[in-house]
Amino acid sequence: AQKVTQAQTEISVVEKEDVTLDCVYETRDTTYYLFWYKQPPSGELVFLIRRNSFDEQNEISGRYSWNFQKSTSSFNFTITASQVVDSAVYFCALSEYTGNQFYFGTGTSLTVIP
Amino acid sequence: DSGVTQTPKHLITATGQRVTLRCSPRSGDLSVYWYQQSLDQGLQFLIQYYNGEERAKGNILERFSAQQFPDLHSELNLSSLELGDSALYFCASSVGGEKNEQFFGPGTRLTVL
User: Cβ contact (<8 Å) for A100 and B55?
Assistant: First the structure.
């Protein structure tokens, strides 16, 4: 069965610290997509990244980086030099390669303390 | 602003009632997804439509139904409402197929009293 696990329910860090949000997934499919979304206090879900299962290259976008490891079924998200504006709930998600069916983790609530 | 619109923003109703939530996808997007977000169950995928046809079904109750119209907007109908249906309902859209980055609307907060 498809499943996404975000074991960290809540994390608090002090501003400028680095923080890693863990995501572990389960799927029987050999091809699939993984996503990260951010939900700030305003409530709207914001797309951050999509990674397909063929591409295990790590990605960096500014202070954000993602580490995809197929061998451990993990797609972890690191924020470097965290800022107060990073405070949000972050969701990891898995979808079929067809674009149908999405499975979201339960989210990690990140609080960055000034 | 994601380009996805949802109406209404807030809805308060009573148990046993029926409501309709509306979603307009981003221009050019053919796929629409509906999600329910509640405190105890997180973000649950309900149903997906692609160009008017149902493509995937998640944890959608039989009391709930949805459709996507020829102009691609979608409606989620919730009937025989129960207290436990109180939640934030999100709509998301994507181009479709492999181009499945989803862009979410602001959500409709439903309160059932």
Answer: yes
Provide φ and ψ at A17, rounded to 5°.
-75, 155
How many Cα neighbours within 13 Å face the side chain of B80?
5
Location of structure tokens 């993602």 = A66
For residue B94, the chain A residue with the least C-alpha distance is A99
Closest alpha carbon to B90 in B41, B26, B21: B21
Burial (CB < 10 A; 0-12, 13-18, 19+), residue B42, is middle
Residues B99, A33: C-beta atoms closer than 8 Å: no
Asked if the peptide bond before residue A40 counts as cis, ω within 30 degrees of 0, the response is no
pLDDT tens for chain B, 113 residues: list them.
889 999 999 999 999 999 999 999 999 999 999 999 987 778 889 999 999 999 888 889 999 999 999 999 999 999 999 999 999 999 999 887 666 788 999 999 999 99
A105 interface with B at CB cutoff 8 Å: yes
**Using the beta-carbon criterion (under 8 Å), do A50 and B101 form an inter-chain contact?**
yes
**Cβ neighbours of A50 in B, within 8 Å:** 100-101
Q: Are A37 and A47 in contact (CB under 8 A)?
A: yes
Burial B56-75 (b: 16+ CB within 10 A, else e): bebebeeebebebeeebbbb
